[in-house]
Request: fold
Amino acid sequence: MRLTAPDSLPGDYRAKDPADIRTNDPAGPQQQPAGYKSFDGALVARYTADSGKPLMIGGAWGTISDPGAVLASAITAMQSPRGTWTVPLAEVDAQDPYDPQGRLTCGVETDALLVMPVCIWADHNTAGSVSFPPWVQGSPATLDQADAADRTRHIRDAMTTPRQ
Reply:
């Protein structure tokens, strides 16, 4: 399997501009990230909901020998010196239709006054993170950890396609 960035994603998110999606299919050998047996490509995509709120996605694909190591590496890379996990990252049921050993972890990060739900997944083919639209601390929360996990599963499934 590999990741693609379709024009739209579940939740009424759309890529407004071709510049919102960047992919990298590496040519030739390169250093493998932690947990990968082979690293075949990556993408970064920005989607916008009809409300104007952004959705950020980063992902990669290849042969992943250790999804747990990929998750740990991604979590370390996401640590912000200014941010705190107001809802700590916790593993939830990945419900991965392509890999029963897939893993998913979600939490809510607060950075200054912004609160942002984040989910990270990894299976034996793909890995990625979804950062949902932030809201201002003190305003009513619009997305909790369970909702973020459910939306991430739908987004992951919409982006995962067979390798060509």
In short: The radius of gyration is 15 Å. The mean pLDDT is 87. The chain is about 15% helix and 45% strand. The CA atoms of residues 12 and 51 lie 9 Å apart.
